Amino acid sequence: MSFRVYPKFVKGNPKLRIFLPNFYMKLIKPKVEVPNNHVQFIIPLEMTQYDVVNYLEKIYKVPVAQINTKMYTGDLKKTFKNYLIKEPDYKIAYVVLPEGMEFKFPDIFPELKKEKANKERERYIEQTQDLQKQRKRNWHQVDIPTWFGA
């Protein structure tokens, strides 16, 4: 975050140069399935739609088709000592990119996902094999209860 106070303009002073933007935008993953050209950002409350367009087009050179913003209030939480704590309010910008552009979240840990999938697959295979063994053992004693000691 680089919120700065602009210096007072005095005639003859050098031109004001700012290398960092005064706002920040935090990219978030949507909770529901959205098309590939929709992106969501958490932005400061003071930031307007025009600021979002300038931010994306001037800094990142990303064209924007449409923007909607929505303000959210922070939750009130009670601590164990009955203190009320309010989370800060925030604003979400829903950005729609032009037709040809797509945004896809990068897969940061592809190996971990593959390992998890392999472990789950092996676990399912073991479970099915155990079930098959149990069924093979008692296939001729289907009607006899298990307390007979089969």
Automatic annotation (TrEMBL):
UniProt GO MF annotations: structural constituent of ribosome
GO biological processes: mitochondrial translation
Principal location: mitochondrion
Gene3D superfamilies with a match to the protein in the record: 3.30.70.330
Record-annotated membrane-spanning stretches: none
Xref: Pfam families: Ribosomal_L23
Domain of life: Eukaryota
Keyword Mitochondrion: yes
GO cellular component, one term: mitochondrial large ribosomal subunit
Cellular compartment(s): Mitochondrion
The entry's keywords: Mitochondrion, Ribonucleoprotein, Ribosomal protein
InterPro entries, per database record: Nucleotide-bd_a/b_plait_sf, Ribosomal_uL23-like, Ribosomal_uL23/eL15/eS24_sf
Family statement drawn from the similarity comment of this UniProt entry: Belongs to the universal ribosomal protein uL23 family.
Subunit relationships: Component of the mitochondrial ribosome large subunit (39S) which comprises a 16S rRNA and about 50 distinct proteins.
PANTHER family: LARGE RIBOSOMAL SUBUNIT PROTEIN UL23M, RIBOSOMAL PROTEIN L23-RELATED
Name of this protein: Large ribosomal subunit protein uL23m
Species of provenance: Oedothorax gibbosus
